[in-house]
Each structure stands twice: as structure tokens, then as C-alpha cells.
């Protein structure tokens, strides 16, 4: 890839990949919903930003019960976003601009509007159509109780009873019935879908909930279950992903797995040379702004990837996670879904300072980096009015959990245009906060001290500096309140998390800093710097 120090086939090993949540990125037709026309219009912005690839969250036909993760047809673009022909144009135009495309696949479940599930409901108990899913009779005297004691990832019971009395499994929302991956037709369909998109030029596929796909066919209760977990990280998953890898290798494509696992040895198994290429690093994403914890996360991440030769990935935020500026401005700077709540105070100035430092830290680490849309603008978590909330997480928690709408609010593009330039005809699907015009991309593009300017310069230098593509990481300090490491022999990254300014290590020049150094040339608190040595 242009500017890369790696062979073209290895572009993904040190790529910066920009996550596009299409619904909230840019509205090209003015109907209030982001679309592919909007993305195509912003390709020059993305090329100037300097990213290597775009990862699109699901853009397929969907009733949008869970933001597009309830897929009704993988070969059809949802009309709210555009058409298949436009998706093909976008993939081609992005590639001409030096930007590859990664799409999302959701193998665990489909929409309840998918043709398979609609046929299963009609066919009735014991039918071949129902074998594609997990239908079971209920427990209790009249089958009125769910078939087991599992809990939905969104909270509550993951079973819904249909009119004929059977229940179907959905680890997520009711509208997302789980597929039965022990059925050969399910495997064949997904392999066909992969080929469909690789043939249209995508460079890679991100696999949603990759460790949840396979289920113990007995669907046993969790309580007292003695063997392997009945639906998390089951051994039969690896045969599935080996067959997928063979398809990707035909097209020179890559896979990125969403794999949440605490066991580093089990995690690394997904990254063996004949399985997935990379996997998301949730340890780093959820880590608090604490020097000792961050260093431990970095060391453990590199150690678990080393045996299989896979590159690490680094990410600060995504479409599910509280935005970095807000999270780092709180007293508790870590992230956990169970800790999300309304009304947690945050200091935006402190959060912004730390987010700027975290940007330079993540971009200096060995491996690839994922950048969620709007992070380059320093956007905080939006406070969505309760009557506008749409996330099923909020409703399934009976209003206790704020859900994820706050990190999915549409982007501000132009300060002086209606709805901050997201789309001019109608109000967007989620409201933009009143002060977001001041964070618009057009204003930040002309401000040398803006978050956008910092990201553009950091990505420009990252492409140009060989050390950030091939240099190994070597720690230079044992200070628990500082992260100081070399990449190769010519570059050092230093991040100060102590209360007092820190002396810089020996260097020949300052390449980039997340904020101004103090008058004595020391590194202030919550500031990062790249140094030439």
C-alpha cells in the first residue's frame, strides 16, 4: 500500500483502519440517515486523513432492530443506504484513492425477517426449516418455561415462544434468531456470501461475535454445567474458520475477529496461520487511563500474539463503546458494559487531553490500529434525549442502561450548515447535540491545534516512519506512571501519566506531541510525544 514499509500482501499488519457506521457518517440524499452516497462524497476527507482501509458495519438489508446487525439479506444493500451497484462503486473508488474496504459479517444470527426464519415459522415443529435455527420445546407442565437458563447478551431471557408453542434461541435481541452452525446449509450459505463480497473487491471481513457462533447441540443449562461452555469459544469454531480462511486466501483477503476471551492461550488459537489474520484487542480498549494497567495490557497483548506470529490490534473506541473523550474524563476511566449508567460526570477538557495522548500512544504501538469515526474530531459521548433513544440495550434493560446511541450520533461536517452539515433536508435519525457545530470537520481542518490536525499529522508520520511498521517495541523505563518505549533504533514514544511534568529521554528532535511541552521542555501530565533519537 502507498507509503507502507511492508509488502502489499502484508498491508494489514500495520494498517490504520477507519470504522464507518454508515447510518451516522454522512447523509448524501438528505433524508436524515447516512448512506453510501455520503461516504463516497467524503472519500477525499478520508484519503487526506491518511487511513489505509475502511471497515463498514453492516450495510445489508435489515429491519434495523439492532442497528443493522439483524441481517435480512447479505446480498442486498439496505435501501436506506443505497444499492449494490453503489456499494461496488464505493469499493472501487476507495481503492483508487488507496483505501481498501472491510465489511462486517454476522454469523451468529440473522433477522427474524430473513427468508429462512420466516419459512421456519411457517413450517412448524420438526420441520427441516427449523433445523437451521435452535427451536426447542419449553420446560414446565405446559412448555411455558424457556428451554434452559441462559441469559441474553442484551439482558433478559434469550428465548422467545412462537404460536405453536416452541421456543427459539436468540443470544441478542428477540429479532435476531441464532443460526444452527451444525447444519451444513448454514456453513455453505456463509461461504457463498464470503465469495460474493470478495468477488466484488472487498479486502477483508470483520466477524461479529466470532466466539459465540457454535453451540453445544444439547443446549444444556449453564448452572452446574461441567464441560466446555455451551456457546462460548467452542472447539468446533476452528474448523469453521479454517474453511473461511481457505476462501480468503483465494482472493488475498483477510479476516478480523471480534473475540472477547480472557484466556490468552485460547484467544491465540483463533490467530493460527490457517485461521483468522487478526482479532480485536478488547483488553486495551477497556483499560483505564493508568500507566501500570496500560503497560500490562500492552505486554500481555504482544505476548499472546507472538507465538502465532499475528499482529496485535489497538483500538480506543467503537460503535459499542463510550467515546474516548468522555470515558477518559471520568473518575473511572475503564470500560465495562455492566458499568454503563446515566449521569456519570465527565471533565471534557481532561478527557480531550488524555484522548490526544492516547491517540499517539496507540499509533506508536506495533500492529494495526482501528479508528472509530468521529474520534479524529474529538467527539464526546452524546447525551441522547430519552424520547429519541433507539438502542435495544436500553429497552431490554428497562431503561437502566443508556445503550449505545451516544457513540452513534451523526458526525458534524460543516459548522454553518443545517444539522452541522450531516444532511440538510430533515433532522438526522439521532439528534446532534447543540454544540457539535463547534467541533465540525471544516473548522478543525483549518485549526492547527485541533484533534483532526493531530490525527492527520500522526497518520502522515506513521506512514513515513519505517520504525512504526517494522520496529520492535522495547521499554526504556520502569516508571509505573510513564510509558516510555522505543520502536526500532530511531524513534521513542513517551506518555506521562504522573501528576508532575516528566523529563524527556535523550533525543535529537521532537517529531510530534499531543500537547505543548512545558517551559523547561518537560512532558506535562496526560501528554504524549514522539521523539527522534
UniProtKB/TrEMBL annotation:
<dbReference type="InterPro" id="IPR045857">
    <property type="entry name" value="O16G_dom_2"/>
</dbReference>
<dbReference type="InterPro" id="IPR022567">
    <property type="entry name" value="DUF3459"/>
</dbReference>
<keyword id="KW-0378">Hydrolase</keyword>
<comment type="similarity">
    <text>Belongs to the glycosyl hydrolase 13 family.</text>
</comment>
<dbReference type="Pfam" id="PF11941">
    <property type="entry name" value="DUF3459"/>
</dbReference>
<dbReference type="InterPro" id="IPR017853">
    <property type="entry name" value="GH"/>
</dbReference>
<dbReference type="Pfam" id="PF00128">
    <property type="entry name" value="Alpha-amylase"/>
</dbReference>
<feature type="domain" description="Glycosyl hydrolase family 13 catalytic">
    <location>
        <begin position="19"/>
        <end position="404"/>
    </location>
</feature>
<dbReference type="GO" id="GO:0016787">
    <property type="term" value="F:hydrolase activity"/>
</dbReference>
<dbReference type="InterPro" id="IPR006047">
    <property type="entry name" value="GH13_cat_dom"/>
</dbReference>
<protein>
    <submittedName>
        <fullName>Glycoside hydrolase family 13 protein</fullName>
    </submittedName>
</protein>
Amino acid at each position: 500500500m502507498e507509503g507502507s514499509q511492508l509488502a502489499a500482501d502484508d498491508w494489514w499488519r500495520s494498517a490504520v483502519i477507519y470504522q464507518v457506521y454508515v447510518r451516522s457518517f454522512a447523509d448524501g440524499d438528505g433524508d436524515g440517515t447516512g448512506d453510501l452516497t455520503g461516504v463516497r462524497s467524503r472519500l477525499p476527507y478520508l484519503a487526506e486523513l491518511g487511513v489505509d482501509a475502511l471497515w463498514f458495519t453492516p450495510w445489508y438489508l435489515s429491519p434495523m432492530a439492532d442497528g443493522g446487525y439483524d441481517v435480512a439479506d447479505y446480498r442486498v444493500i439496505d435501501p436506506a443506504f443505497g444499492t449494490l451497484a453503489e456499494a461496488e462503486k464505493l469499493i472501487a473508488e476507495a481503492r483508487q484513492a488507496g483505501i481498501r474496504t472491510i465489511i462486517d459479517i454476522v454469523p451468529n444470527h440473522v433477522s427474524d425477517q430473513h427468508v429462512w426464519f420466516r419459512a421456519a415459522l411457517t413450517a412448524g415443529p420438526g420441520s427441516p426449516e427449523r433445523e437451521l435455527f435452535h427451536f426447542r420445546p419449553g420446560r414446565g407442565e405446559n412448555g411455558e418455561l424457556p428451554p434452559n437458563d441462559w441469559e441474553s447478551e442484551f439482558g433478559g431471557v434469550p428465548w422467545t415462544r412462537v404460536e405453536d408453542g416452541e421456543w427459539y434461541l436468540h443470544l441478542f435481541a428477540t429479532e435476531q434468531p441464532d443460526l444452527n452452525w451444525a447444519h451444513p446449509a448454514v456453513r455453505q450459505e456463509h461461504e457463498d456470501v464470503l465469495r460474493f463480497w470478495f468477488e466484488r473487491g472487498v479486502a477483508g471481513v470483520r466477524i461479529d461475535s466470532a466466539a459465540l457462533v457454535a453451540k453445544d447441540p444439547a443446549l444444556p443449562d449453564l448452572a452446574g454445567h461441567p464441560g466446555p461452555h455451551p456457546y462460548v469459544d467452542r472447539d468446533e469454531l476452528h474448523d469453521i474458520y479454517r474453511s473461511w480462511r481457505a476462501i480468503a486466501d483465494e482472493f488475498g483477503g483477510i479476516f478480523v475477529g471480534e473475540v472477547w476471551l480472557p484466556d490468552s492461550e485460547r484467544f491465540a488459537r483463533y490467530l493460527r496461520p490457517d485461521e483468522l489474520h487478526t482479532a480485536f484487542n478488547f483488553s486495551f480498549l477497556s483499560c483505564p487511563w493508568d500507566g501500570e494497567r496500560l503497560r500490562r495490557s500492552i505486554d500481555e497483548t504482544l505476548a499472546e500474539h507472538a507465538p502465532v506470529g499475528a499482529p496485535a490490534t489497538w483500538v480506543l473506541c467503537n460503535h459499542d463503546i463510550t467515546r474516548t473523550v468522555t470515558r477518559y474524563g471520568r473518575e473511572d476511566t475503564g470500560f465495562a458494559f455492566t458499568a454503563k449508567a446515566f449521569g456519570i460526570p465527565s471533565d471534557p477538557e481532561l478527557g480531550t487531553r488524555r484522548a490526544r495522548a492516547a491517540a499517539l500512544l496507540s499509533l506508536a504501538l506495533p500492529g494495526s490500529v482501528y479508528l472509530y469515526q468521529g474520534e479524529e474530531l474529538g467527539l464526546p459521548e452524546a447525551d441522547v434525549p430519552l424520547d429519541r433513544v433507539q438502542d435495544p440495550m436500553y429497552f431490554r434493560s428497562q431503561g437502566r442502561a443508556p445503550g449505545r446511541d451516544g457513540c452513534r450520533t451523526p458526525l458534524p461536517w460543516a459548522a454553518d450548515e443545517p444539522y452541522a452539515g450531516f444532511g440538510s433536508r430533515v433532522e438526522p435519525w439521532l439528534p446532534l447535540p447543540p454544540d457539535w457545530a463547534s467541533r465540525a470537520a471544516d473548522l478543525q481542518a483549518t485549526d492547527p491545534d485541533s484533534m483532526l490536525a493531530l490525527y492527520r499529522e500522526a497518520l502522515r508520520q506513521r506512514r513515513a516512519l519505517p520504525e512504526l511498521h517494522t520496529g520492535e517495541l522495547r521499554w526504556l523505563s520502569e516508571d509505573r506512571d510513564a510509558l516510555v518505549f522505543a520502536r526500532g533504533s530511531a524513534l521513542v514514544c513517551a506518555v506521562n501519566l504522573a501528576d508532575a511534568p516528566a523529563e524527556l529521554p535523550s533525543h535529537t528532535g521532537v517529531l510530534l506531541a499531543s500537547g505543548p511541552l512545558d517551559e523547561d521542555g518537560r512532558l506535562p501530565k496526560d501528554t504524549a510525544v514522539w521523539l527522534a533519537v
